[in-house]
Design goal:
It is built from nine helices and seven strands. By secondary structure, it is an alpha/beta fold. Strands 1, 2, 3, 6 and 7 form a five-stranded parallel β-sheet that branches. It is globular. The relative contact order is 0.16.
Length: about 230
Amino acid sequence: MLPQLVKLKGAALDFLFPPYCVGCGREGAFLCPVCQQSLPRITPPICPRCGRPQPGGILCPDCAHWPAAIDGIRSPFRFEGAMREAVHQLKYQNLRALATPLAGMLQEYLAASPLDVDVLVPVPLHRKRLRERGYNQARLLAQELGKLINIPLADDALIRRRHTPPQARTANVAERTQNIADAFACRDHSLRGRRVLLIDDVATSGTTLDACAAVLKASGAAEVWGLVMAREI
């Protein structure tokens, strides 16, 4: 479709179905300027591994004893307030259009805190959950971010081969680690020597991102970083 027609189509849809802010309900945008300004940001100093706030910017006590495969996890926001609602709407309420403004926020974050990477890889869903939901919210975010920062997307190299209960239903890090064990696999060695940026919506303990990183590095990836919209603190 021609760019002019895409813009006209978007304008028509906005006229017929105007977006409403997921934070306050104000008409005009999925996240209005006031709610965007009030989003709970994560600011330095942070732990260089998990990305949580940490005085002095040194490894936090949890990461000091964490034999992680992932090189680091970064997130612009805490999983609270309007950001929690935005992620919920994107993930569970089929509000796929939210991926565009959220990816724009990730772009802004990377502009201020660059990560030297070659390729974006979304955390995959198992085919059962993909059928149920109809889309992978991590893939939507990665697609939109890739367009903005001009980095290619490799969404077929990493697969989820085992269906697992949601990590949010587990009680602690040990249970999350066990829940996600052997859940991922690489189709090939196409990412050998590449610096990978894993994309997901939320990180809680980081065990899902780390499990993906372990598989990617076992298949030859040089570095693996994680970038999520929000993380629990």
